[in-house]
Specification:
Structural class: alpha+beta
Strand order of the largest sheet: 1-2-3
Number of helices: 5
Shape: elongated
Helix content: 40-55%
Order of helices and strands: EEEEEHHEHHH
Number of strands: 6
Largest sheet: 3 strands, antiparallel
Strand content: 15-25%
Oligomer: single chain
């Protein structure tokens, strides 16, 4: 690590702490040349392999943009979208993979979006899973209703 003050090519780690969200490490460093101290934040890079084969850095903003379209006209706030994007990123990082297919990201979005808003979930799923006709919508709705029935039955039994 280069010293930001004197550009010396090395530094000594004095202290390391995990960030509050657990996704990064904050390191306090000292330059052996000039003696000044500075902090760095380290995160593991997460790369996305797009369908075209292009590899690019993961972006929460892209998740929010894609999901925002599905949530148009729904009672979903920007804070809700930010929280959804954070949960998706945490779930993806928990896999331990450094590169993910764009398809895997879409699969990680679906359950979080279903929890947030079922209509938005159906909209997103219809594009993501390439629904071709009304039967595709109907089977997705039947599955949602079955899950609601199972949840209600479990709640009644509890």
């Amino acid at each position: 690590m280069h010293c930001p003050f004197c550009r010396y090519s090395d530094s000594r780690v004095i202290d390391s702490r995990t960030s509050d969200d657990g996704l990064s490490i904050r390191r306090r460093r000292q330059c052996p040349e000039c003696g000044r101290r500075f902090s760095t934040t380290e995160t593991a890079s997460l790369m996305v392999i797009k369908r075209s084969g292009v590899v690019e850095p993961f972006s929460r903003e892209k998740i929010m943009l894609g999901v925002r379209k599905a949530c148009q006209g729904r009672p979903v706030t920007d804070a809700d979208l930010a929280q959804l994007a954070q949960k998706v990123e945490e779930n993806l990082r928990a896999t331990g993979a450094s590169q993910l297919d764009a398809n895997d990201i879409g699969l990680a979005i679906l359950p979080e979006l279903r929890e947030l808003d079922e209509v938005a979930y159906l909209r997103f799923a219809s594009v993501y899973q390439a629904f071709e006709n009304l039967d595709d919508f109907e089977s997705a709705i039947v599955q949602l209703r079955a899950e609601h029935g199972n949840a209600a039955t479990a709640a009644d039994a509890g």
